Structures are given as structure tokens and as C-alpha cells.
Amino acid sequence: MKKTITTLVMAGAVTSAAVLGAAYSGLVNVGADDPHFPAVHAFLAMARERSIAVRANDIEVPDLQDEALIRTGAGNYNAMCIGCHLAPGVEKTELSQALYPSPPNLATSGISGDPAAAFWTIKHGIKASGMPAWGKSMADEYIWGIVAFLDQLPKLGPQQYNALVASSSGHQHGGGESEMHNHEGQHGNHVPERAGHHAMGGSEAHHPAPGNPVPKTHTHRDGKEHVHGN
């Protein structure tokens, strides 16, 4: 028995040393364009799902059919989420194609029948996935608004989505709102603007004179401008 335990300890030490050596040597490719091995992906997915399930177990879910809550969520989702998680009529944005793991298309999956897990995920985010912890700047009531809206999202077509966003108060969650990356008009889904507030994050719109279309330009964090042709 003692010999078996010693053998197992030594094997564990050798395996750990090999893993550390491979990591330190730079053999592990951390590039987002190099997918995990299937076994690693399955392990990480299991760990993520179990972690969220355990922590969301005692969360009390409010009335997700509340129309005011849904409208609030529509404005915030449109301002903060569609770049990664898409919307009816919106496909393959720059972010949704570039992130790994690939963000789920919430326009089709919604909350997947688990509002408590959706709330926890939005509030706390997920490490090393690109999913922010919106609870650092957003009060719980606004997060529940997004959850309530997500519960309705798979049932909406592009026109219904746009109408619901237009009826909302846009990007608002009690302070700390920032200008979001503007995807308006780039992906085939134009969302009507509210007076004084732009649906895609509050940035000032530029309206070209009739007959003189202007290419759409946005600026990345590194200061470089990206121009989309017409």
C-alpha cells in the first residue's frame, strides 16, 4: 500500500512538472484563434456550468413578464450586448466572430430556461471568456431587466425587436453608463433612435446630406479608425 501511494505521488509530481514545463516553455498557445483541445474544452464547460449552477441556486427570480422590466432590458441589451450576442436580423459582428469561446447567439437561445443562471452570469461575468461582470456598474434591477428581455428575445422578429428597443429608455442603468461601440447600420439591423438618445450607446449620429452618403467610421481603443464602405 505504501509503495502504491509513493508511486502515485511521484507520478503526480512528474505530471505536474511536465505541465509546468510545457507552460513555461511557451508551448501552450493562448491565442483566441487556436481552440482548446476537445477534452480541455469539455472540462472547462463542465466547470463553468457547475460553478454557475451552484452559485445561482438560491437566487430569487422576480416576475419576468413585467412589461416595464422588459422594456428597460431591451434598451440596455441593444446598447451593451448585441455586438457579442447578436439580435434578430443581426449576424456575425466583429466581436462575435473574434471572441473565443464564441459568445452564444442569445437571439435564438435566450435564457435557456434558467433565469437565475442568466442573472448570475450577467452580474458576475465569466473569467477569461470576454463576458464582463456588469454588476460592477449595473444595479440588480437593471440586470433583471436584461434577463426579462432575454426571456422574450427568441420570440421576436427584427421589427418587433426594433419597436421594443424604440419604446425603451435606451442605455440606462443608474449611473456609469458609457459610450458603447457603435454597430448601427453595419449588420443589416437598423434600430430607430429615441429623441436625444441613440440606441447604440449614445454616440452622436452624423447625418449626411441626401445624395451624399458618407462611409461609416468608428474608432478602436488603440486610436485607429475603421471605415465601413457603403
Write a compact overview of the structure shown.
The protein has 230 residues and is mostly helical. It is 44% helix and 3% strand.
Can you characterise this structure?
Keywords: Heme, Iron, Metal-binding, Signal. It comes from Pseudomonas oryzicola. InterPro entries: Cyt_c-like_dom, Cyt_c-like_dom_sf. Residues 68-154 form the Cytochrome c domain. Residues 174-196, 220-230 have a biased composition (Basic and acidic residues). The model is unreliable at 181-215 (pLDDT under 50). The chain contains 9 helices and 2 strands, in the order H-H-H-H-H-H-H-H-H-E-E. It has 230 residues and is mainly alpha-helical. It has a two-stranded antiparallel sheet with strand order 1-2. The protein is elongated. It has a domain at 64-175 and 197-204: Cytochrome Bc1 Complex, Chain D, domain 2, CATH 1.10.760. The N and C termini lie far apart (74 Å). Strand 1 (216-219) and strand 2 (225-228) form a beta hairpin.
